[in-house]
Amino acid sequence: MESYSYVNIFETKGLEYLLLICFLVLFVVLVRYLSAPKAPANKPKT
Amino acid sequence: MSKQKTLSSEVRAFLKFLWSEMKPRGKALTPFNVISVPIMIAGLVILVIRFTKGLGAVTNLSQDFPWGFWIGFDVVTGVAFAGGAYLITFVVYVMRVEKYHSIARVTVLNGLLAYIFYAGALVLDLGRPWNIINPIIGNSFGYNSVLFLVSWHFLLYMITEFIEFSPAVAEWLGWPKVRKFLHSLTLAAVIFGITLSTLHQSGLGALFLLAKSKIHPLWYTEFIPILFFVSSIFAGLSMVIFEGTISHRVFKDRLEPGAHESFNKIIFGLAKGAAISMFVYYFFKALIFIHEGHWSMIRDAWGLWYLLEVVGLVLVPCFMFAYGVRHRSLGIIRTASVLTMLGIILNRLNISVIAFNWNAAVHYYPSWMEIVVTLMVISAEIWVFRWVVTRMPVFGPSREFAFTS
Amino acid sequence: MNRRDFFALTGTAALTLATKKASADEIPLKKEFVGVLTDTTRCIGCRACEVACAEANGLPVPDVENDNALEQPRTPSETQLTVVNRHNTDAGEVFVKQQCMHCWQPACTAACLTNAMYKTKDGPVIWRPDKCMGCRFCMVSCPFSIPKFEYHSWNPKVQKCTMCWERLQQGEKPACVQACPADALMFGMKRELMEIARVRIYRHPTKYVHHIYGEHEVGGTGWLYLSAVPFEQLGFRTDLGTTPYPDYTREFLYSVPIILFGLPALLLGMSSLTQNHEEEPDEGIHNE
Q1: What is the pLDDT of residues C13-67, one digit of tens each?
Q2: Alpha-carbon distance C187 to C122, whole Å?
Q3: Taking 80 as the threshold, does the pLDDT of residue C7 lie above it?
Q4: Same domain for C236 and C256
Q5: Mind telling me how many Å the CA of C191 is from chain B's nearest CA?
Q6: For site-directed labelling of B70, which of A30, A32, B64, B84 has its Cα 20 to 30 A away?
């Protein structure tokens, strides 16, 4: 009655690493965007 | 003899001072008073009914929805908003960033009052509140419970925050020696407080780990504790921006000259912190979404509701904060902080109430009496906050000891 | 199945049935958990168990003859610790009795911060009024939504089936088991009940689905069910998994002492790193 099939619980891992890389790149962009304001006053990172 | 006499006269003068401080100051008929006093009276009446006739008489709680608005909003959401206190004390006392020093005291006061009132609202929701001493005095320690941890942390954190704030009380009472002693405890209290906050902010989320079979899969994840902790960062920061903006208007006369400009600079720093923490939070959300393979779930109404919370009220205000920092726009930052707070409210209510037992036949919604009691709790907190800031040196440097003998 | 196997199996069943009675007096001494096996193929929907339960627990006794309660699906409530529901399935009408499952590792006891929800040494999960503060976290956590709260009382109780814990201590069976005229309920050690349940499945392989609900669900429950139709058709939750519920908070609670010790140390280290050596440590909670 019960059947068994192999379940790969890490199926989405590749996609997750891709997401990680994208977000790392975007994070650098965001931090650069935040720490170089148009106004002359350059603020230290919080 | 004479010494005794001076002592007793000093005590008398001190009591007289306390009595004079108890009296209300300022105008009686402010719009806030006109609104809040009837709410508080109505709330007290409702509470009398609640404690004599049972919770069912005033709330819409049911067997399917044992936790409603009082837990979901007052406690779970209120504590998230109180997260500003541990963040600011971390930045000021551990990282020693002097820029934020001027808002440390008011933030700690806000945190302390939030815990007293919002975590205190938990007592209103307890069916058998007289047994609340059981997990405290040790005749039945449920170590195995996340709620045991959370309630102990609430208690300890209130004491910690009071120690952090106590130098202001000592200044108000004119006790320089006591102040010096209390002040020496500050760093220890701050470090202990941050640790406690980390654990109970995440612990509030961990409560819902046991509701695995009831929470909609878009919201249930084993990472709820981490998500709660990370979101408490920007919840706290947004609250500091929001509350600070209001305080700086209402208590203008209590501020030092120049405080307004320095506060605006502080807002930009806070907004930057909020933008970064929200971006990290959004990444966590996206990662969990992909790992769990929830693609098929975002098509129905629940999916849209989820997207509203995660994209509309996290990612959008995150970019608004960034834009506001970049373009030096306070207006955009303030709007973003309001949106962020809405997002936090939505997130906490989703997990505790809205997406909880989402497939139940009859869904819970709060009764008007539950909302009135919540408004009563908020009003009472604001009353106490106002009483404290108009008497104790909370905003900016202390000028003089209020009571000198 | 050949004849010899058949006799062997029935022999075991008869033996376990015989020993069951003898061991009832020794329950408090045993370290084994007790349970109840519900055979839904035998239940005739007479609701004698509901009546017995209400009488044993001092709750309003349902008027079984006239109340037509089977027409509507019900759940156990604060006034009815057990209910029987009628389900229309592939195999026709099936009656299912519902009550607390008496999990082996209950979510409610892991949730309870005062140990009011208590797993007794013999297996039944009971509620202790002198401990409970009414936070209702047990209700939030229970995967079967069993604990019920008296919302309309100033001194509310949390109501749930206790497997007649007090009767068990006097060597009696639970009231519902005692009352069942159709032999649909059987009380005993879970290990023995499992054997009996398996015997029934082996003897009637086409009559029963080959699954004993409660064997592994949420880590195993004290109450077991046999059925002729898949359990989904009987309103059972089959998506609960086999992980005991307390396991879901294990990692978090494990990390608590680690954070409580590690984080202050880390923060103290950070604080001494940022300390300004020229000046004394900062003054006051604000600028002075």
Answers
A1: 444 444 545 455 554 555 689 999 999 999 999 999 999 999 999 999 999 888 8
A2: 13
A3: no
A4: no
A5: 27
A6: B84
**How many domains, chain B?**
1
Q: Are C246 and C220 in contact (CB under 8 A)?
A: no
Q: Percentage of residues in chain C with pLDDT exceeding 70?
A: 85
| Chain B interface test: which of C103, C286, C287, C288 (most B C-beta within 10 Å) | C286
Does residue B155 lie within any of the structural domains? yes
User: Is B26 within a domain?
Assistant: no
Check residue A3 and give its pLDDT: 65
* Residue C271 shares a structural domain with residue C140: no
- Spatial contact of C160 and C81, defined as CB atoms under 8 Å apart: yes
Provide the CA B382 distance to its chain's centre, in angstroms: 12
Give the nearest chain C residue to A2 (CA atoms).
C210
Measured in degrees and rounded to the nearest 5, phi and psi for residue C150 equal: -85, 90
Do C185 and C267 share a domain, yes or no? Answer: no
For residue B214, what are the domain limits? Answer: 65-389
Assess if residue B47 is contained within a domain. Answer: no
Residues 82-101 of B with CB under 8 A from C: 90, 93-96, 98, 101
Other chains touching C, judged by 3 or more CB pairs under 8 Å:
A, B
Each residue's pLDDT tens digit, B73-83: 999 999 999 99
Quote ipTM for the complex. Answer: 0.89
Q: Does residue C127 sit in the same domain as residue C266?
A: no
CATH classification at residue C216: 3.30.70.20
Contacts of B55 in chain C (CB under 8 A): 149, 151, 156
Q: Say which residue the tokens 């994070």 belong to.
A: A27
Chain B contact for C11, CB < 8 A?
A: no
C230 and C104 in one domain? yes
Which residues of chain C does B98 touch, with a Cβ-Cβ cutoff of 8 Å? 282, 287
Residues of chain B by 3-state class (helix, strand, coil), percent to 5: 75, 0, 20
CATH of the domain at B124: 1.20.1630.10
| Cβ–Cβ < 8 Å for C142, C108 | yes
Provide the shortest C-alpha distance from residue A12 to chain B (in Å): 6
Q: What is the pLDDT of residue C280?
A: 52
B126 to chain C nearest CA, in Å? 5
Let me know whether C80 and C100 are in one domain. yes
Q: How confident is the model at residue B118 (pLDDT cuts 50, 70, 90)?
A: confident
- Looking at CA atoms only, how far is residue C251 from chain B in angstroms? 10
Burial tier of B67 (Cβ tally within 10 Å: 0-12, 13-18, 19+):
buried
Chain A residues within 8 A of C207 when measuring between CB atoms: none
Q: What is the CA radius of gyration of chain B?
A: 22
Pairwise CA distance, residues B151 & B132, whole Å: 10
**B346-355: per-residue pLDDT in tens?**
999 999 999 9
Measured between beta carbons, the chain B residues lying within 8 angstroms of C248 are: 209-210, 212, 222
Q: In which band, very low, low, confident or very high, does the pLDDT at A45 lie, cut at 50, 70 and 90?
A: very low
Residue span of the structural domain in which C12 resides: 3-243
